[in-house]
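Model it.
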Amino acid sequence: MAIQFETIREKPTCNCGVFGIVGDNSAAYKTFLGLHALQHRGQEAAGIITRTKNAEGKNKFSIFKGKGLVTDIFNSSEIFEQKLVGSMAIGHNRYSTSGASQSTKNVQPFAVTYRMGNLSVAHNGNLTNARQIRKRLVNEGAIFQTTSDTEVILHLIARSRLENQVEQIKEALRQLEGAYSLVLMTDDKIIGARDPYGFRPLVLGKLNSSWIITSETVALDINQAKYVRDVEPGEMVVIPKNAKSDKDIKSYKIFDDLPVPKHCVFEFIYFSRPDGKIFGSNVDKIRRKLGKNLAKYHPVKDPDGDKVIVISVPDSSNTAAIGYQNQLEKDGIPSKLEIGLIRSHYIGRTFILPEQMKRELGVRIKFNTVKGVLENRTVVLVDDSIVRGTTAKQLVKIIREANPKSIHIRISSPPISFPCFYGMDFPSKEELFTNKFNGDLEDMRKYLEVESLEYMTKEELLDSMVDHAPEHFCTACFTGEYPVPVEKQFTKNELDI
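Modeled.
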């Protein structure tokens, strides 16, 4: 049986990555590099659209998209030299949180031609009222080409009776609820916009005479561009094709009154790359603080006074593990940070496995232990989250085979108890690890077969968000307190339209 490892997801999966650039003759190639840097935000599909001129001198949008990784899709110089030419481009990495992942129709960016010209959009997030809007538009005669929530944005803009395109877009965005960080491209400008809560990150950068709007600063770094600032929650940034300086960039308030920001705290815990900057803070700095607080409130000591061996689940937990071990040493607990798990980076997209073996062997294909490091040691396994618990259980099993003295798991976030409706993909509420055991930590520990299991509390987590007010973060996946109301009858699958 051939299975895709992506379907055996233990971690929450991110929404998408977006990138837009204006004023660069190699715009498509710069977009390709940016999407490659954002590959962690979506690995199902990717697409790039550029603006150029046709034989009659009229504006034309050229599109190239496909399923798979960025380097697999854009694998020829011909794509950039002949198919995707022009000085403006936007791109998108896809992981589907809304819309059928099997359909190539749902691969973004999406593009339309309407009375004001060409229009394209790339969307990071999830719209909680897309279903209602779509139903209304269909009843009014609209025809949809995809099952993605993003398509409603184009319909709302195209159906506006306003005569100014910027005002059309503002009018459309005011009708949306939920999470959106958008990059749009018209015949003569690039536009970036964020929802009023700022759930998802979006940054503005500069490269010589060109301007970039993208999800994370890592997409700027790979292009040797400079970070300028964040696009603010509830802000729309408009950059014309001939922008020469920041004076040519226009900023608009989409909403008259803004709510308290609710940044997705999981962007810092897990989603974003540690070498990037989001929500105005360095991800590495936050993750080290998470690890330090985890050690401060949930330390592990060796009963014989030997050094505690701290290891991470590579790669997302590496930085938190560093912070954890540093804090243990600071608090006088003998410890050593070690590489105890080696992760294979050469796993293909499919692998032949019998059904009954796919869980366990899937973990063994990805991870192996450094036995000499773990043998007869008190081992602390630091991880950022546990979703279903299946991978954690198998990791413990292979660590146990290295004959440690004891195994202790420390998680740098609270237990995930609720689904996300703003762009993260979690299993159903019933499938979540903590809910299988009704939140009983002792039963969870027994299932994992470890000597101890401890999570951070919400208060400890928010205390780790240095440079930010605690109330500026969405913690709905831990608490069930949703900043933007979601109708009770909705489940995650019901939001797929």
